[in-house]
Specification:
The structure holds 2 protein chains of 2 kinds. By secondary structure, chain A is an alpha+beta fold. Helices cover 72% and strands 8% of the residues of chain A. Chain A has helices at 2-13, 15-52, 65-76, 89-105, 113-117, 138-149, 161-203, 205-213, 218-255, 260-264, 271-292; strands at residues 54-59, 81-87, 126-131, 154-158. A 4-stranded antiparallel β-sheet of chain A has the order 2-3-1-4. The longest helix of chain A is centred in the middle third of the chain and has 43 residues, at 161-203. Chain A is elongated, with a radius of gyration of 30 Å. The two termini of chain A are 23 Å apart. Chain B has helices spanning 43-50, 72-80, 97-107, 112-125, 141-154, 171-186, 229-233; strands spanning 2-10, 18-27, 32-37, 58-63, 66-68, 82-85, 159-163, 190-195, 211-216, 219-220. In chain B, strand 4 and strand 5 (66-68) form a beta hairpin. The relative contact order of chain B is 0.19. In chain B, the strands form 2 sheets. Chain B has a 6-stranded mixed β-sheet, sandwiched between helices. A 4-stranded antiparallel β-sheet of chain B has the order 2-1-4-5. Chain B is globular and about 50 Å long. Chain B has a domain at 87-156. Chain B is of the alpha/beta class. Classes of the chains: A alpha+beta, B alpha/beta. Chain A binds chain B through residues 2, 9, 13, 206-207, 209-218, 220, and chain B through 51, 53, 72-73, 76-82, 84, 86, 90, 92, 94, 103-104, 106-108, 111, 151.
Chain lengths: 296, 236
């Protein structure tokens, strides 16, 4: 209790200095929190995409339905495949005409006449492969596609390989940039707190000198500064989380109609990540104060 | 309590600028000793060495069994058993008089009602009970000096090291402070106090202190007369 009183004494004693540091720490954590929020939502988007991902195996026109079922069994046995669904060309055509009719019903442009332009069914029979989540990397998908293509009766394999590769390399780069930026911002926040506490130590050198004269040890002198740093870090991170939540709500409210589909799956940071950010704030504060107390 | 053997203190590297020159003396437990001499004799330097605020250039200095210089932990432990009064009292301006005195006791680990009792007793001993909640800026130089003395004695230290504890005080205040030191000495504390040139003797040093150490230009004198006319005039 006495320790907390001494730490709060420091807060009120240098209120302006602490307010400035608090603002800078909060801004650093706001940037980190924003990166984290984008990361969480990208991860969610990837999880959604993964659950719906299908590799499309196009069969040669010569493959009859009986042979197609054999192929389905053969392809199901490939490593990484968790399930397969055979869609013959007439079922594919039915599904397409149904979709075109639905577009018209929802007020979209009518394209039903397009099917009247072609005499024969232009759609091939296909087998749609469900792929296990751990096989959804560009390299594993490419290897699976090569194996599927090698099967007798398969004309081609489609899974948007260029898009998948681009998306994965973007996500990898984002993770790298986010981790590096977050690391830098954490270090910067620790040094800001450290410099500020160093300044406070200089301003209180008379008090510290007197405490030493009275026989106070480094722990007694330093403890309130460590607590002060922890409070600064925690308060800065908590402020940042509050501001981030406000900004997130504002963004969702403003951009809701234009990006409805995109925002449907969007969510704020989960409670564990929020608490983690605040906890990290406390840790950064303690680290900053320990740096400033090195030569005490 | 204090063993000093061949203690020398140089400021800088020039041996001619020797603040203390090969001092040999010792203070037994429970002694009350005045350290006297003119300005620049080396009194404050000796006190700062005893408090561990300066490091000896050579020689041996042992205070309460701790050889100085000592590491921070040992020095802090030593200082917790000491009461130190500086020449210019250092008080925390953002805390009250009582809080300034309490600080010394908190450092010793005292808290709660025991701490409050000790603070009240210390304030009473220097006659400043009415100013316990006052900020130091409202105090006169003499009152600040009394607060510094009260803070030094509040923890009932084994050794009191006081650099001109009667500075800024009128004769009545000086007598009050000396009586307090004397009382503390009777309780078993060892007292080493610098008394400057302005100290007239207040009825004779001998009434208060049992022994006087005379310094002149960094050397201990065998006889007070060697210190000069003033020294001889107030010999103990």
């Amino acid at each position: 209790m006495r320790l907390l009183k001494r730490a709060l004494w420091g807060f009120t004693g240098h209120a302006r200095l602490h307010a400035l540091t608090l603002a800078v720490v909060a801004l650093s954590f706001l940037a980190v929190g924003t990166l984290r929020l984008v990361y969480v939502n990208l991860n969610q988007a990837i999880a959604g995409w993964q659950s719906q991902f299908r590799m499309l195996v196009v069969l040669r026109p010569s493959v009859d339905p009986e042979r197609a079922l054999d192929l389905k069994r053969e392809l199901s046995a490939l490593p990484g495949v968790s399930g397969a669904e055979y869609v013959d060309s007439s079922a594919a055509l039915d599904a397409l005409s149904e979709r075109l009719a639905q577009m018209k019903a929802t007020g979209g442009p009518s394209r039903a006449h397009l099917l009247e332009l072609v005499a024969d069914n232009p759609l091939p029979s296909t087998i749609r492969l469900r792929v296990r989540a751990d096989y959804l990397s560009p390299a594993a998908l490419s290897a699976l596609a090569r194996r599927a293509e090698a099967v007798q009766g398969v004309a081609e394999v489609r899974y948007g390989d260029a898009w998948v590769a681009r998306f994965y390399s973007f996500f990898r780069l984002f993770k790298l940039v986010a981790a590096a930026t977050s690391g830098l911002l954490f270090v910067a926040a620790a040094f800001i707190i450290s410099s500020q506490l160093r300044l406070v130590l200089v301003l209180r050198r008379n008090e510290i000198g007197l405490m030493r004269l009275l026989g106070a040890g480094a722990a007694y002198i330093g403890a309130p500064y460590v607590l002060e740093g922890a409070l600064l870090g925690t308060a800065g991170a908590a402020l940042a989380v509050g501001a981030l939540f406000g900004l997130y709500r504002l963004f969702v409210a403003q951009a809701g109609t234009e990006f409805e589909n995109l925002l449907q799956a969007a969510s704020f940071l989960p409670p564990a990540a929020t608490l983690g950010l605040v906890g990290f704030g406390a840790a950064v504060g303690v680290l900053g104060s320990l740096i400033s107390l090195r030569r005490l | 309590m204090i063993i000093c053997s061949g203690l020398t203190k140089l400021y800088g590297k020039d041996p001619n600028e020797c603040a203390l020159h090969s001092l040999d003396f010792h203070l037994d437990k429970g002694e009350f000793v005045f350290l006297r001499g003119h300005v620049g004799a080396g009194k404050s330097t000796l006190l700062r060495l005893v408090c561990g605020l300066l490091e000896p250039s050579s020689g041996e200095l042992i205070v309460n069994g701790v050889s100085l210089p000592a590491n921070r932990r040992r020095l802090a432990a030593l200082r917790r058993r000491m009461g130190i009064v500086e020449q210019e009292p250092r008080l925390l301006e953002d805390r009250s008089v009582a809080e300034n005195i309490a600080l010394a006791l908190e450092v010793q680990g005292l808290k709660g009602p025991a701490l409050k009792r000790r603070v009240s007793a210390a304030l009473r001993s220097v006659g400043l009970e009415s100013l316990s909640e006052a900020p130091p800026r409202r105090l006169s130089a003499g009152q600040r000096q009394k607060v510094a003395v009260a803070r030094a004695v509040a923890g009932e230290p084994l050794l009191v090291v006081a650099d001109e504890p009667c500075r800024h005080l009128d004769s009545e205040g000086a007598a009050e402070v000396l009586a307090l030191l004397r009382w503390l000495n009777l309780q078993g504390s060892t007292i080493l106090a610098v008394m400057g040139d302005c100290w007239p003797g207040a009825g004779g040093d001998a009434e208060v202190a049992a022994r006087c150490l005379w310094l002149k230009r960094g050397r201990l004198l065998d006889a007070p007369a060697e210190a000069g006319e003033e020294g001889a005039a107030c010999a103990c």
